[in-house]
Amino acid sequence: MRVLVLSGYGINCEDETMHSFEVVGFKGNIVHINDLINNPKQLDNYQVFAIPGGFSYGDDTGSGNAMAKKIMIKLYDQLIEFISKDKLMIGICNGCQILINLGLVPGIYTNDPEVAMIENKSGNYECRWIDVKVADNKSPWLKNITTLNLPIAHQEGQFMIPLNVLKSVKNKKLIGLQYINKKKKLAKGKFPFNPNGSQDDIAALTNKKGNVLAMMPHPERAFYNYHVPNWQNDSSKKFGDGYEIFINAKKYFL
Amino acid sequence: MTNTIQILSIEKTGKESSLQKEHNNKSIKIIDGYFFSTNLDDRKFNKISKLISNEVSQVILTRKNVNTVLSKYSNFNWVVEIKYLPGVTDNIATTVKEIINNNLKNSFKSFELGSTKIILIKGRKEDISKISKNEANPLIQTIKIYPFKKYLNNFKRNQFKIEKVKLPKKKYTKKEINLDISDHNLSLIGKLGIEENDKSRRGTLGLDLESLKAIRNYFSIIKRKPTDIEIETLAQTWSEHCKHKIFSAKIDDIQEGIFKRYIKGATEKIIQLRKDNFCVSLFTDNAGGIEFNKDWIICHKVETHNTPSALDPFGGAITGIVGVNRDCLGFGKGAKPIANTYAYYLADPNKNYQLYRQKNNKDPMLPASFIAKGIISGVRVGGNCSGIPTPQGNVYFDDRFAGKPLVFCGTVGIIPKKIKGKLSHKKKANPGDIILMVGGRVGKDGIHGATFSSEELDPNSPVTAVQIGDPITQKKMSDVIIRELRDENLYSSITDNGAGGLSSSIGEMAKESGGFIVNLEKVPLKYKGLYPWEIWISESQERMTLAVPPDNVNKVIKKFNTRGVEATIIGKFIKKEKAIVKYNKTQILNLDMEFLHEGYPKLNLKTSFPRINKEKKKIIKKSSLTYKLHKLLSSPNIVSKEFIATQYDHEVQATSIVKPLQGEGRVFGNATAIKPLFNDEKSIALSQAAYPQFAETNPYDMAGCSIDTAFKNLIVSGANSKKIAILDNFCWCSSDETDRLYQLKEAARGCYDYAVAYQTPFISGKDSMYNDFKGFDKDSKSIKISIPPTLLISSIGVVDKISHLTKITPDKDDKIFLLGKTNNELKHSVYDKIIGVRKTNLPNVDNKTALKTYKNFEKANKLKIINSAIGVDLGGVGIAISKMAIASKKGLFIDLKSKNKNSVDQFLFSETQSRILVSIKKSKLQKFKKIFKDSNYVCIGKCTGSDLIEFKNGNKIIKSKIEDLSKSYKQNIKGL
């Protein structure tokens, strides 16, 4: 099992993302986007493609846009091919914004972007821990998970989905994660449970096939129990909730 | 044909809602505009628009649709157009240019573009000017306000304009400066700068008469006149910022100066006492390094960026943080930045100070709220975009920072001890090594930055002294250095281009080889027309200088280029101890290295005991304990800084292990910790402390309190007391006055005594000596505002095991103990400021008793006897109790009988140092008492787990709801 973790131009979570994959049993490489563009054939050697979090191009012209445009002209066909195979892809935070801007998620009708990531309703960058539940979704990334406690850290984490697209997203069950409150009920847009005002409390979407997951929360930052706030109250566990996402990728290929 | 692309968000954006809220006006809309230097035909317009916008969430405005689209939002009548001044870093424009170049190859020969913010408003003109004042800084931006009709007209007639940098195209001729002139004219050169042919002056050099005479003397010996670039270079190298002349000067009877005696002296003494390998690299490098574990070194550096932040808060602060990141990249062979720290000392953002740099209300200081907000966002963007967590910081408010805010930015880095078998902290540029400049290009930004930060802020403070950081360019450069080059051992030395630009970085590095030859025409520029002296001293950001053996140069350049980073050969290091600079083959600088670095006249300073002004104070009498608790909790210096903590990504790199917000009730902690390596459970604890409020009463005790607090916070968090190092950042005022120098000397003496007592070496430090504002008030009366002398002590310590890390939340039935004795020390406390008190003392640290408490605490914590702990600081025990309860959401019962001889207020609000509040589980009480038998402690109550804090005073019980206290503690700071 091999994973390619993308890096370069302001992506900055490649090390911890790679580490999480390695601990659950993957081998792989952190590959600079320019090296991948120069040799896209190397994608054949990997079963998982991960775009980690970061600030590609400083979020200028909209988070994920500039990197998506770079990928669009140089790597788009190769990524489409990758997805069509029995492989997995994940975009976390900035990676999620890039996948959305590429239109790979949700990818319902066309390959143009159908969803936008816009600024948090508060107007502020938000770095905080939130709770999400897994929606009715068949993505292998989310299998057998009910809820997760994970951190988010973004300026533009609000999913904006036109009504017609939203309808299809729901019909086709493409919602991955939704923000919930302390009572485990949907946050209903309420801050800080829904930290960005995202429509229908959406925190993650998948493509139709389910093998591509675009999620705003950071599982790699909730990988170990000591990542979880106030872990001192319960230090018996080894892993945090983020572990579940990575172990699911491993299980998929077993 | 059009020359603009303007993009509108369909839904209300976050920025729009905050602007609407702030100005209580729902008719505000913001447009992202891009102005091009050439016209775009329809094909290009469509293609580019698509590339830089989002079809789902945005609309592209065109001549045809602009009116109809906008009329859906409001009946706008005014437009505020905000653009960067020519030459100011425009990061968005850079990205857009790159997107266009990637996607539309060869479509343009060459073009310029600028990003603009266009704000549409419906409202009265006076409100509009207020909004524009809050949204833009005239120092770096142009602001145009015009009627909405004109905006529509501009669209029709294609009249959006971009201004390019226009510099005179005069050919450079070598300029020699005559120094055989009167003392008066000589000092004019120092103060106002070198005179141009048209009699204008280049801007301050910050050189005093004595220094200029030393320069004159040197050139009379070598029998020629100095060139302009030689004088500029000496001004940079000899600046207070670079040479720390005051710290190295003879002062009273201290021949060797206070740095050598007290700061370095303390560290040398400690190393002599300790006999271990803890200290790795001190004072000589860009940051100070200590041992983390057997394979890794960690380094820490804290810088200030005060003057630039007063002029352009956002630019000053972002440059401050990305600048200190480079200090880590430039530590040894290059350390990876793993944490940022911040500390802001600000004026009350809710006050209107009305300060002007010139008479008749001209050249105003920026409003305090603008400064505060700009600084907070500058560090946010710098830290977040760089992928470096920013867990640790604090903010302190005092009116005396109205003339100059203090902005401390720090970075922690990590580097393997050995790289390919060689010690990583050792570096040496060898004769023959190529000088490689990597990263950003050079423009006029930051010219005279180093020299002017050594001067007071007055009308002549130069505009070009301001830079804006570009974190993404730096991130790309940093990735190549840390991830791809360093461990290959391809370069022999590396340093940051900070203050003084190339002149400083190359000048410093050349000490390792002997000297250097630089060809300035090779330096890549942002725009044409810079003079060689400007290229040489420019402080354009995001650059590092590398010394590369000739055989490796091509490999190194190629690596940078494939990652989209420029790398340019600009000269070489030589053995001969000469500093030589050429421009198109003409030699324009030739100095002896010895004179360049040591030729400045050494100061001889005297101090005098300052007069202490007695202040009258108001005292609030007869107020209830509950009232006082709420009042203190909601005061700006105690109130939670959660709104900053949640803006600063402290989780990136997945290292955050003790977070800035602690407990379920989210209390803003005074120490944080990161666990930097996945395969080692060791962590790094960070804290910081300063007591500017104590400085003028007793600078020696002020230093003692700062060191004690910074040390104590790490002990409380679980750090190993033998593995704590500290950093000193002195921000002083009027350092040409003998009483201020007395305070400085006393503070430095305090540093020595307490550092030696705690055996915490100083590993790095910095000073900023003139934090004064000279100007006018609203009635044109001349006014000088000096900051209170501020010594920030930053502490960094190693926590050996995860299980040593503590929490601040007690559990039900825990007993609450106060470790350390409480004295009547309310002077200049938060209580004193808000409630007022007479007949009291300033806190004074008794380090022997303190150390006993700390040693016992450390021992008990390792044995898991401490269930929770919090260091007692601002606001005293009363506030520490409240924080414990707010964090845990569990009630406490406090018996005030334990106050002993103190009054209730003295017991609860005294800021006596070296105290820790702990909670102990019942089952551990015996062991606890045994360990603490030789140090002072008192049981003050227990954790009830209810929703109340109860104080029992005799027969009376005073109750406060935790939820109410929490509301006070989490109040918004007015004006922010």
Description of the molecule:
The complex is a heterodimer of chains A (254) and B (976). Chain A is α/β, with parallel strands linked by helices. Helix content of chain A is 25%, strand content 23%. Chain A contains 7 helices and 11 strands. The model of chain A has no long low-confidence stretch (mean pLDDT 96). With 976 residues, chain B is an alpha+beta fold. Among the domains of chain B are: 2-157, no CATH class; 806-976, Phosphoribosyl-aminoimidazole Synthetase, Chain A, domain 2. In chain B, strand 9 (288-291) and strand 10 (296-304) form a beta hairpin. Chain B is globular, with a radius of gyration of 29 Å. Chains A and B meet through helix 1, helix 3 and strand 6 of A and helix 1, helix 4, helix 15, helix 17 and strand 27 of B.
Summary keywords:
heterodimer; A: 254 residues; alpha/beta; Rossmann fold; nine-stranded mixed β-sheet; two-stranded antiparallel ribbon; 11 strands; globular; B: 976 residues; alpha+beta; Phosphoribosyl-aminoimidazole Synthetase, Chain A, domain 2; seven-stranded mixed β-sheet; 32 helices; 34% helix
Tell me the number of strands of chain B. 42
Q: Give the SSE order of chain A as H and E letters.
A: EHEHEHHEHEEEEHEEEH
- Sheet with the most strands, sense and barrel status of chain B: 7 strands, mixed
Give me the secondary-structure category of chain A.
alpha/beta
| Largest binding interface between chains | A-B, 59 and 66 residues
Strand order, largest beta sheet of chain B: 19-21-18-22-20-23-24
List low-pLDDT spans of chain B.
459-463
Quote the distance from N terminus to C terminus of chain B: 44 Å
